[in-house]
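Let us practice reading a record.
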Amino acid sequence: MTRAARGARTGLRILIAVVCLSALGAGVIAAPAMWVRWMAHGRIQTPARAPARDVAIIFGAEMYPSGRPSPYLRARLDLGAALVAEGRVKVLIVSGDNADAHHRETSNMKDYLVSVGVPAARIVEDPGGLDTYDTCVRARDVFGVTSALLVSQRYHLPRAVATCRAVGVDAVGVGDVTVRRSSRYWDGFARRELAANVKMVWDLLTHRSPAVVDGPSDAVGTALRS
């Protein structure tokens, strides 16, 4: 075999390997995305069409050092407050990282909600909701939640709904889209969901324990009785 022929054969093998790896990589991304879409199908609603549930979970997002919520988080909190005002939910769980490094996320989320008229007794803090998976598992295991509305930006809700449903929480998402008009980060955050879907499937398959393990807590039951 000539050197040119050997070079061509090597090149073909490299090409085949690249194509196979690319297909494998695409499958790793596509399969979780398709599963998430299937799990969330028909379960993402506008605020006006949100069904009534006892509990809504508001997922945390960036909190500024001043204790003021970022536009993304403020939009989520405003949506949660509106659901309470309209009588669609009775109790709000604010879930996030309450450490100093994250600017006391859940405490400041609660303070903001109280400032816009939500009764403090109807707000439950989950300071161990360090990511979407942890929030869903803790809603079930710590707070005894079996059914909830999930409040977040629209691009995040399919993964949130799929995760909660997979761990046994009957979830419907209520999505904010208002911040999209003023944020240049929306499309980038939406693309990041593809990688987040892969991590979420791995967490579910491995039954990962949340980073913060405590409870159980009757805080939601107490809030419902208030």
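A brief commentary: Residues 4-8, 14-26 have pLDDT under 50 and may be disordered.
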